[in-house]
What does this fold into?
Amino acid sequence: MYISRLNLDNFGPFNGDLIAPIPPGLTVVLGPNEAGKSALRAFIRVILFGFPTRAQSAWNDYYYAPHLGGEASGSLHLSMANGSSYSIHRSEGSKGGPVAVAGDMDGGGESLTRLLAGIDADLYQNVFSVGLTELQSFESLNRDEIRDRIYSAGMGLVNVSLPFVTKELDDRIGVFRKTRSGQLFDLEKKYSEANARLEDKRSELAGYEQLAGELAQLSGQLADLDSRIEDIRRLRNHNARVITLRPHWIRAGELQTRLDAVPERPGFPERGSERLEELLAEQGHLHEQISEGDVSDEMQRAEISALPVVEAFIEHEAKIARVVQQIGYYAEAARDIPGKTAEEREAARDIERARDELGPNWSEQRLREFKDASGAAVRLQESGETESLAKRSYETAVTDIDRAKAALNEATQAATHGENRLGSLTDVPSESGEALATRRDQLDRLQAALAEFGDLERFATGAGRHTTDVRPSTGRSLAVASALGLVGLGAAGWGLVAGELSGVLSGMITVGVAITLGYRSVTRQSDGDVSDVKIDAPGQRMNRVSHEIESLAHELGMTTPVPMRGVVEALSAMDRAVERRAEYERRVAELKELDNVVVTASNGVRMSEESSIVAADAHKEAVDQWNETLSSLALHTNLDMPRALTAVGNISTRQAELRLLDETRRRIAGMTQRNGQTDRALAEILNAASLPGFEPGDGLHALRDLEGRWNKHRDALAHRRNIEHASQSWNTERKALETRATTSGASLDELIGAAGFETVEEFRSAAAALSDKKQILNELRQLNIAQPELIGPDAPEIAKELDLMSPDALEAQAAGLEDQLTELDIERVDGLQRSGELKLRLQQLEAEEGISQLHATIDRLTEETRIAGRNWSVLTVARTLLDRTRDEFQESRQPALLGLASEHFRRMTLGRYSNVRAVLGENRFEVVMDDSIGKRPEQLSRGTAEQLFLALRFALVEEYCRNTESMPVLLDDVLVNFDPVRARAAAAAVIELSKRHQVIALTCHPDTVTMFQSAAKEAGIESPNVVDLSPGALNITGEADATGGEATSPKSTSELLETPRPRMQPLL
Amino acid sequence: MQPFRFVHAADLHIDSPFKGLLKTDDAIAKRLHEATFEAYQNLIDLCINEHADFLVIAGDVYDGADRGVRAQLRFREGLTRLSDHGIPTFVVHGNHDPLEGWSGSIRLPALVHTFGAEPEWADVRSNDQVIARIQGASYPHREVRENIAITFAAPPPDDVFSIGLLHCNVGGDPAHDDYAPCTVDDLASIPIDYWALGHVHTRRTLREHRPTIAYPGNTQGRHPNEPGERGALVVDVDGTGRVELAFRPLDVVRWETIEVAIEGRFDLGELVDAVSEALDIARSDAGGRDLIVRVLMTGRGPLHKELGHGETLSEIAEELRRSFGRGRPFVWIERISDETRAEIDIDMLAGRDDFLGAILRRAGTARDEGDEREELRAALASVFNSRRFADVLDAPDDEELSRIIDEARWELASLFEGDA
It folds into this structure.
C-alpha cells in the first residue's frame, strides 16, 4: 500500500494544496523550518486515524489549526498492491471526525480499519511514522501492546488483534475469578453457608435422639413390666391348670395299675394274632379251591361221552372236507343240466332248419366246413345283376314302343288342329307383311311432312315477336348466373376459411348451377341466333316439304292435296291390314312345324320295335346263367337274387350258432362227470361211517346230510379237546395249591410253636390278653394328648404338687396371684402415658423436612459452581494457550526480526556492529560489535543508539508486513544526528527499504536530498521523488491539479540541487 | 421345588434430593422432593399387586447416613403394609446407608430381616416350607473396598433356591464408586442361584442363568445421567429353579435429555419450535409421568453466535417453561446447554502458518497428549487445588481436561475469527 496523493484542503498552513502523484518508492519532502513538514506528517496521521481531542496528549502534536480558520479537513489516496485504490476523506469532528472511504470499497471508519489491517494510531506512530522523539526512546518499542500488535500483524490476524482477544479473555475470566467478587467465590460462599445450616439441622436431630433415647428407656421399663405381668399370669394359669388336672391324674393312675397286671409275653410274635388268623384263613381257602376244582373237572370229563363225535370222520377228515366243498357246485350242476340239455336240443333243431333252407345237401359237417361265403355272394351278385339288367332292358324296349305310338298319335291330332285354325282366318291381305310395312312408313312420313308444312306456315307469320321475347330473357339469365356464380364463389371461399366442407360444397354447387345457367343462357342466345337464321329461309323449307308430300302421295297413289284426315285414316286401315297379315303368317309357320313332328314320331315307333327284339334275346341268356350259379352252390334253384344272397350271408351266423351248440354240449358232459365223481366219494364216506347210502339223483340231499353231520362232529371234537386241555391245566394247578397248603400249614405250626404253644386255642388266649393291654395303652395315650401336662417335662412337678397340695391350698394360691396382677397393671398404665407424651414430641420433630431441602440447595449450588468452574477452566486454558503461543512466537520469530534489524544496523554502522540480539530472561536488546563485545543501547552514543532503533523499526516494519499489506513509512529528519558517513549509510538503508515499502522522508536539509539521490544511484534505482515545501511551491502543484492535470511536478531535482545548502544542525 | 415370585429392588435413596438441578420453582421442588417416596410406595404396591412371596432390597435404602426420621418412618410404613399382607422383606445396607449410620430408634416390622455386616443365611418360608434361602451382608461403614462376594458361603446341598443379596460394583463400573468390587466370575463361582445386586443405578442383567446376576437399577432417576424408566425386577422361579425376570417401572418423575441441532436453522423461532416438538415427543413417551428435561443445543450454524449472546438461552428456557406449563404431569426445562460451535473450519485454521494456526495446533496437541497438558492442568490449580473449593469442586480428570482443552480451542478460534 502506498499514498499516491494528498489533498490538503484546510490543515495548518495548507489550504487547497495538492501533492500528487506520489510514487510507491522513496519520496523526499524538502522544506525549510516551518514550511509545514511536521504538519504534513500530522495530516497523514489524522486522516488515517482521526483528529485527537483536546483532552488527548496527541492534541498538541497532531492538531494543526487551519491558518485561514474553518474546519480542518483533507483527503489522501491509497493505492494497494492488488491495483485497487481508495480515497479517504476526513474532516474535523467528534470521535476522530467523520471519515469517508471511496473506491473499490465504500464506507466509513470500519472500512478504513480493514484497509489499515488493524494498525491503530499507536502502532503507526511508533513503528511507521518515526520522528526524532520516537527514535530517541526505546520504550516506545518495548510496550507489550506494541509488541503484541506486531506479532498479531505477523500472525495474519486482520480483524481481531491479539490484544483484543487477550482482553476479552481476561474480562470473561474476571467474571468468575475476580477476587472476592467473582462468581466462583460467590457460589462457594453460598455453598459454605448452606453447609453450615445443614450442620445446624443435624444438631437438631441430636435433640431428637435424646427424646428417642428416653422413649426407648421407658419402652424398656414397660417391656420389663409386661414381662413380670406375663410371669404372674403364667403362674396363675398354671395353678388353675393343676386344679383341673386332678381327676385325669387319678384316672391315669388307675390305668397304669391295670397295665402292670398284664403278664409279659416277650416271645409272642408281633402281630401274632393277626398272622394266626391269616394263616388259618389261607389254609381254609386253599382246601376249598382244591375241592371245588376236582368237582368241576369231573363234571366236564363226563360231558365228553355225550358229544356227537364220529370217529370215522376223523380218519376221512380230508376227503370229507373236499366232498363238502363240492356241495355248491354239485347243487348248481344238478340244477343246470336239464335246462342246458333242452337248450342243446332247441339249437340243434334251429341249425337243421337253416340247413334245409339252403339246399338239400347241406349237412352239419358241410355247414361247419363251408368257408367261401363272400366269394359265393360275389358270384351270386354278378350273375343276379346281369339277369336283372337284361330284364330291365327288355322291359324298357317294350315301354318305348308304347310311348312312340302315343307321341305319333298326339302329333297327328295337333296337325289336324293347326290346319283347322289356318282355314278359319278371313280378310287376309294378299300383300306380304314387308310390303305392307313399307307402305305404312310412307304414310308416317306423309303425316309428318303435312304437320311440318303447317308449322312452317304458322312460323312464317309470327317470327318477329319470337325474337324480342327471347333476348331479354337471355340477359336476365346471364345476370342471375353471374350473381349465383359470385355467391357460390363467396360461399366456397368462406367454407375454406371457416374449415367447413359443407360450405365449400354448397359454394361449388352454386357455382356449377351458375355455370349451367350461364351456359344455357348463352346456348339459348345461340339458339336465338339460329332461329334468326332459320327465319331467314322458311320459303325454301316449305318448298322442300311440299315436294316431299307430293312425292309420297304419288307413291301411295293418293291425290294431292292430300288432307291430313285422309292420311290419318289410311294409317289406321294400314295398321289393321298389317296385323291380320302377321297372324296369317304365324299360323302357317305353326302348321309347318306340326307336320315335322308327325314325321319324327312315326320314325320313333319303328326304331322301338327293333330294339325290343334284341333285348328279349339278352334276357333269356342271363336267366340261364343265374340258374347255373345256384346249382354250383347247391342252393335251391327257385331262389331269386335277394333270397340267395340272404341264404349265403346267413351261413356265417349258422356256423356261430353251431359253435355255441358244441360248447353247450361240452358243459353238460363236464357237469355230469364231476357230479359223478362226487357221488362216488360220498358213497365211500357213508360206507366207511356205516351210514345209509343214497339213491341216484338223491346225491345232493345225502351231501347236505353229510355236511350237517360233519359240522356237528367238528364242534363236538373242538369242545372235547378244550375239556381235555382244561383238565390237564387243573391237574397242574391242583399240585400248586397242595404245595401252598402244605407251606401254610408249616407256617402255622411254626407260629404257634414259636410262641411256646402247641394248639391254636392256647395261642388265641394269649393273643386276647395282649389285645386288652393295647386298649389300656390307647386310653392312656388319649388322656395324655388331652392333658399333655401329665406326661410333659413338668409332669413330675405337677404330680408332686397334686400329691402334696390339697385342692383348697391350690385355690388360695390362685387368689394371691390375682392381687399381684392388679397392682402391676396400674404401674403399666402410668408408663404408657409418659410414652405417649414422648412420641408426640418425636412426631413433631419427624415432620421436619429441612435436611433434604438443604441437600437440594447444596446440590444446586454445587452444580452452579461446577458449571462456573468449568467455564472458568475453559477460559483459563485458552488464556494459557495464548500466552504460551505468544512466548513461542517471541522466541521463534524474534531471531528473524533481530536478523533483519542486524542487517540494517550493520549497514548503517558500516559493519562496526555485526549483530542485534535479545538478552535471554531480560526484556531488552543488546548489540554485538565486530569484536564480539556486547553493548546495551544506553552504552552507545546517541547517534549509534538512534541507528539501532531505526534499524529495529525497519525490521519491525518488514516483520509486520510479512503477511499483510505493506504500509507507508514516514521518517521525519531521522538522519540529523548521524555523522555524514553513517548518514549516507542510513540513506542507503532507507533506499533499500523503499524497494519494498513506500518511504516519505521529511527533511529541511537539501544535503539529505542529495544523499538519497546518491544512494539511489548507487543502488541502481531511479532517483527519489522530491517534493518542495518551500513557500509558493505547493500552490503551483495545487493549481495544476485544479486544472485537471494529472502530473503535478514539483520543482525539479536539478532546481533543488541548486538551492543553497542548509545549515547543519549540531549533533546532540 | 415350589414355584415362587419375589421382587428385587435396590438403590431406593428415599428422601434424597435431585442432583444437578439448576432451577426449579416451589411446586416442582416439592414434587421432586416427594418423588423417591412415591417411587417407594409404587414398589410396595407392586409387591402386593404381583402377589410376591417376598421382597429383597439390595442396599442404599436411604441417600445418606444421616437418614431423616421422615424417610425412616416412610420406609417402615411401606414394610408394615407388606407385613400386613404376609410379605417378608430382606434388606442389606450399602455405601449410602451403612450400618454405622444414624438411626432414629425406629423398629421395623417383624417380617423384615436386615442383614448384618457378615454374610448370613435367612430362610423364606411359605406354608411352613422353606421356598428360598437368602444370604446377605450389609456395609458396616461407607467405604467398603474389599471383595465381600467371595466371603459368601455356598448354600446347603439341597434343592432350595438360593439368593445372594449384595451391594457391590461388578466389573469396576467407572460410573459408580468402586465399593465391594467383584467380578461375574467371583459370583458365578459360588453355587448361588440368583444374585440380587444393588449399587449400579442402570438396570442390567450380567448373566441370564445359573446363576442369574442382575441389577434392577434405582427406583427413581434423580439426575440427568439417570434418564429413562426406573423401577424393580419381578422374579419368577419355577419348579425347576428356572428364573424369569420382568422389569416394572416405578418412577414418578422422569429425566430426559433432548438434543437439538442448529444446523440448517437461521431463526431462533425455528429453533424453539424444534425444541417444542422434541419436548412433545418426550412427554408422550413418558407415559403420564412428570418430566424434567435438559435441552442440549448442538451442531454448527449461524445461530451459534446468537445463542452466545447474553441471556438468550435462559430466555428461551423461560419461554419454553411458560409454554409447557407447570401443571401435572409437568414438563420442566431444567436447563438449556449450549454445545454449539461456530461455523468455522477449525482444521483449516489449524493448518495456517500464523499465530492462530500455531495456537490451535498447540491446543490440539495438548488435548490429546503431551507435556503441555500438565502445564494447563497447573494453570487450573489456583481453583481446583484451593482448600476453599476442595469440598465443592473435583479437579478435572484426564477425560474432562481433554474436553476443557477442546472447548478452549474452539473458544480461541471463535474469538480470533470474530465469531464469538
Remarks:
- The radius of gyration of chain B is 25 Å.
